[in-house]
Structure formats: C-alpha cells, structure tokens
Amino acid sequence: MDYSELEADVLRLVVGATEAGVRAFGEETVTRLVRPELLRGAAEDELTEAARAALATACANVLTISAAELHDELATIYDGILVDDDLDPGVLTAITALAHWKGYLEQNRRGELYELAIRSIEDIDHEVAADLDDFLAHPETAAEYERIRRLLDPGAGQERGTHQK
Predict the structure, then answer these.
(1) Disulfide check for 41: which of 88, 92, 142, 155 has CB 3.0–4.6 Å away?
(2) Terminal alpha carbon distance of the chain
(3) pLDDT grade, residue 30 (50/70/90)?
(4) Confidence (pLDDT) at 159
(5) Which of 34-43, 78-87, 153-162 is the least confident region?
(6) What's the pTM value of the predicted model, to 2 decimals?
(7) 39, 97 in Cβ contact below 8 A?
(8) Picking from 27-31, 43-47, 78-82, which range would have the lowest pLDDT averaged per residue?
(9) CA 37, CA 102: separation in Å to the nearest integer?
C-alpha cells in the first residue's frame, strides 16, 4: 500500500467509525503522541520555562484537561517557543497532537482525528524511514496501521484479505 492509499484508507476509517470508536481512537492516539519520552529532546533554548511547564502539564493531563484549559496551555506553549524552525521533532509532535486534540474537543471534528492518525503514522515513519511506495513493508508501520484499523473499525480484521492490495 503506498502512502496516498494509506491516507485515503485512514480517512475512510475515521469518517465511517462510530462515535465511541473515534473517541477511543483519539484518546489512545493522542496519549501515544504526547508520551514523556518525546519531550526528553527539548533543549532549554527551544522553549521558555513557562512553555515547558505548560507542555508537561498538557501532556500529563491530556485525557482530563478541558478544551479551554488546553487552549490556554497551548497559548503559553506557542508564546514560549524560542526557535524559528528547529524545534525538537518529539516536542513538535506533542504540540501538534495537542492542537489537533483541542480541535476535536472543541468542535468534535473528525478531521482532527484524521490528522492525529497521520501524525501517529509519521511518528513511526520518523523512526523506521518507511518506503512511501510500500508503506506497510516495515513491521512497525504495519502495526500502527493495524492499531488504527482495530480502533476505528473493529470488524476490519475479518475483511482484511478482501480489501488490501
């Protein structure tokens, strides 16, 4: 499966999932994308102390924080970014995930969860450098795709042989 096919399938899964499915997917995915080890690469010259504290708070409380509180934490984070283009990739992943989660919490937009899915896939790709023409060739990217499918379409496993290219 090439990358564009993967994106299209993830979009189809997000659109077709139940409300409970998208919520469970969103919670599991945002939690994965704000895991503490992603923040370890943050250099002190990238974020102010207030921004680092806001990022740590938002990540630690991602499933219990309200959209308004998350909005405030993100504002503190954005105001405290000290670099123009060279933010640590893990920190950038966490901030982006928090922003998409906030968008979902505020307006229940599934497009934000699609973006979380893509960020999650890109996080794995960053680790293994997957082939864009056969994106599922690496066990890690295949496992992430299966995790997404399992959460968004629990019945997809039984149909897998009929869909996959």
Answers:
(1) 88
(2) 6
(3) very high
(4) 46
(5) 153-162
(6) 0.88
(7) no
(8) 43-47
(9) 21
Residue whose pair of structure tokens reads 């790709």 in the numeric block: 125
d(CA 105, CA 82): 28
Q: State the helix-helix crossing angle for 49-60 and 67-79, rounded to 10 degrees.
A: 150
Identity (one letter) of the amino acid at 122?
E
Instruction: Determine phi and psi for 47, rounding to 5 degrees.
Output: -135, 145
Instruction: Render pLDDT for 96-151 as a digit per residue (tens, 0 to 9).
Output: 999 999 999 999 999 999 999 999 998 888 788 767 778 788 889 899 999 999 99
State residue 81 phi and psi, 5-degree precision.
-80, 125
